[in-house]
Amino acid sequence: QVQLEQSGGGLVQPGDSLRLSCTTTKSTLTFSLYHMGWYRQAPGKQREFVADIGNGDNTNYADSVKGRFTISRDNAKNTVDLQMNSLKPEDTATYFCNARFLNHDNWGQGTQVTVSS
């Protein structure tokens, strides 16, 4: 088991950038063993995949964020970040950090990102 603490988020204008961070605490496993990811959920919609990064630093992105978002991890600091550039109103959602090990998911508390002019 692991606890995930998220930071970042807020209200920005279209075209702006934001950086989300997620730190693992109270983990029974070494951070590098987790497959880390970010998901988001907009009001009235299902939670959707945004990006993930394996322990070998291989990354995957949803088509909707490819080229704009970058996921990265620092195993020494037990953190995973999501750099979001060129934000669009449709990126507005609650973003959740995910840590997965052997198909068991752990979730952060969620952080709101609102993109509006």
TL;DR?
The protein has 117 residues and is an all-beta fold. 0% of the residues lie in helices and 53% in strands.
Structure description:
The chain is mainly beta and 117 residues long. It has strands at 3-7, 10-12, 18-25, 35-41, 48-53, 59-61, 69-74, 79-84, 93-101, 104-107, 111-115. Strands 2, 4, 5, 6, 9, 10 and 11 form a 7-stranded mixed β-sheet that branches. The chain is globular and about 45 Å long.
The best one-word shape is globular
How many alpha or pi helices? 0
Structural class: mainly beta
Low-confidence stretches: none
Overall residue-averaged pLDDT value? 95
Q: What is the H/E string? A: EEEEEEEEEEE
Strand percentage, roughly? over 45%
Give helix % range. under 10%
| Estimated radius of gyration | 13 Å
End-to-end Cα distance? 40 Å
Based on DSSP secondary structure assignment, what is the total number of beta strands?
A: 11
Main sheet summary:
7 strands, mixed
Topology:
Layout: E1 3-7, E2 10-12, E3 18-25, E4 35-41, E5 48-53, E6 59-61, E7 69-74, E8 79-84, E9 93-101, E10 104-107, E11 111-115
Parallel strand pairs: 2-11
Antiparallel strand pairs: 1-3, 3-8, 4-5, 4-9, 5-6, 7-8, 9-10, 9-11
Structural descriptors:
single chain; 117 residues; mainly beta; 7-stranded mixed beta sheet; 4-stranded antiparallel beta sheet; 11 strands; 0% helix
